[in-house]
Amino acid sequence: MGWIGIATGHELTVEGTRRPVFACRTAAGLVLAKMPASVRKDPIAVRLAALCDRFGEHARAVHDRVESWMVRSLPGPAGVTFPEVCGWWQAIQWFGAAAH
User: Fold this and answer.
1) Phi and psi of 22, rounded to 5°?
2) What is the structure's pLDDT at 56?
3) Distance between alpha carbon 2 and the CA centroid of its chain, in Å?
4) Which of 36, 40, 54, 63 is the most buried (most CB within 10 A)?
5) Is 66 exposed, middle or buried (0-12, 13-18, 19+ CB in 10 A)?
6) For the whole model, what pTM was predicted?
7) Nearest 5°: CA angle at 38, between 37 and 39?
8) Do residues 88 and 80 lie in contact, with contact meaning Cβ atoms separated by under 8 Å?
9) Do 6 and 44 meet the contact criterion of CB atoms below 8 Å apart?
10) Could you give the strand order of the β-sheet that contains 11-15, starting from the edge strand earlier in sequence?
11) What is the residue-wise DSSP string for 5-72?
């Protein structure tokens, strides 16, 4: 995701997939370790926070579904040809790597 400018002059982005978090930088490009309170109260930041929550919930749901396939030996999706946009393949790969 790219950087989104807000009214305070800062820019925001969302980083991560399984636990999405905000990143904030100044207009000069300096990435901040903590987000200022004025930025958190911005309407765009509030909407992005809701989006982060939704992405996080979805990633956890995908992870749990794949885990249930692995634990219960249920068949997983076969012949998936659509682009990886929802985290299925990443979760399957994670379980494969954890098994080794």
Assistant:
1) -75, 150
2) 83
3) 13
4) 63
5) buried
6) 0.59
7) 90
8) yes
9) yes
10) 4-5, 11-15, 21-25, 31-32
11) E-TTS-EEEEE-SSS-EEEEE-TT-PEESS--HHHHTSHHHHHHHHHHHHHHHHHHHHHHHHHHHHHH
Nearest residue to 24 (alpha-carbon basis) of 54, 16, 6: 6
- For tokens 């979805």, the residue is 58
Cα angle, residue 41 at apex, residues 35 and 46 outer, rounded to 5°: 90
* Domain locations along the chain: 4-99
Using an 8 Å Cβ cutoff, are 27 and 9 in contact?
Answer: yes
Cβ neighbours for 35, distance < 8 A, ≥ 6 positions apart: 22, 24, 45
